[in-house]
Amino acid sequence: MGKQFQILKLDATDSTNFFLKDLLRSENPMDYTVVVTKSQLKGRGQMNTVWASEGGKNLTFSVLKKFDAMSVRHQFALNIAVSLAMYEALGKLSIPDVQIKWPNDIMSGSCKICGILIENMLRGNKIGEAVIGIGLNVNQTDFGELGKASSLKLVTGRNFDLDELLHTILDSIQLQLDTVEAKTVAQLLPAYERLLFRKDKPSTFTNAKGERFMGYIRRVSASGKLVVELEDQIIKEFDFKEVTLLY
Asked: Which portions of the chain are predicted below pLDDT 50?
């Protein structure tokens, strides 16, 4: 076993990432401090999308990871490490057809079951700390308008113990993050690309202006950009904010 996790449990909070960042400003929490809440009031995903979660049925938590020498250039290594940790943890639970939708949503089949939001605190050209927020749909079965959302219960038919599940995931995260500083994105990419949702399949995207276009996801660059082949074999790289995969 590696380091002990210090787990802070809250009944409700606006966002576990906000809570952990506040804690960082006011005191010096230890490495691998975890904040978990039964009810997150203002959860948000990439690009400030709102994450809708029923209280007490899902896992909503954030993990603090401190670094000595994590270069900003390799920050996508964190996305990969956390995505792979989720894949490994869900594999232990026999969740079917787990894939990673770039940059860091976790899918089961064509439905999203987990969102990851990583916020890095920079010290010059190094990452001092990362706050890793994870929202995993566990025992919730009704997602209203969110047609592409699912949960562990919906895909397996069984209920999960949230505490046990949290520890399974934290162990996987720690295994990945303990060694991530020593690795480059290029070393980690092959494992990530093998799990990439819709890789090499004709897919529809929207750009920042909301315009639709077709393309094939071919790979991910070392800086974490999505490499898409457009018509006439034109290859284009997109940043997080520049493209959305519609399916």
From this structure: 1, 46-47, 49, 51
Q: Please tell me the predicted confidence (pLDDT) of residue 47.
A: 43
d(CA 150, CA 142) in angstroms, rounded, equals: 8
**8 Å CB contact between 102 and 197:** yes
Burial (0-12, 13-18, 19+ Cβ within 10 Å), 236: middle
Count the Cβ atoms, other than its own, within 10 Å of residue 203. 17
Q: How is residue 159 written in tokens? A: 């209920």
Q: Which residues of 176-201 are buried (b: 16+ CB within 10 A; e: fewer)?
A: bbeebbeeebeebbeebbebbbbbee
Cα–Cα distance, 191 to 70 (Å, whole number): 20
Closest residue by Cα to residue 129 from 25, 36, 40, 208? 25
Whether 59 and 164 have beta carbons less than 8 Å apart is answered as no
Contact between 16 and 37 under an 8 Å Cβ cutoff? The reply is yes
- Nearest Cα neighbor of 64 from 126, 137, 8 is 8
Q: What is the pLDDT of residue 39?
A: 80
Task: For helices 76-92 and 185-194, give the axis angle rounded to 10 degrees.
Answer: 40
The closest alpha carbon to 244, from 204, 202, 217, belongs to: 204
Q: Which of 27, 34, 32 is nearest to 9 (CA)?
A: 34
Residue 186 has which token pair?
């290029």
What angle (nearest 5°) sits at the alpha carbon of residue 84, between those of residues 174 and 186? 105
Which two structure tokens, joined as six digits, stand for 89?
């943890």
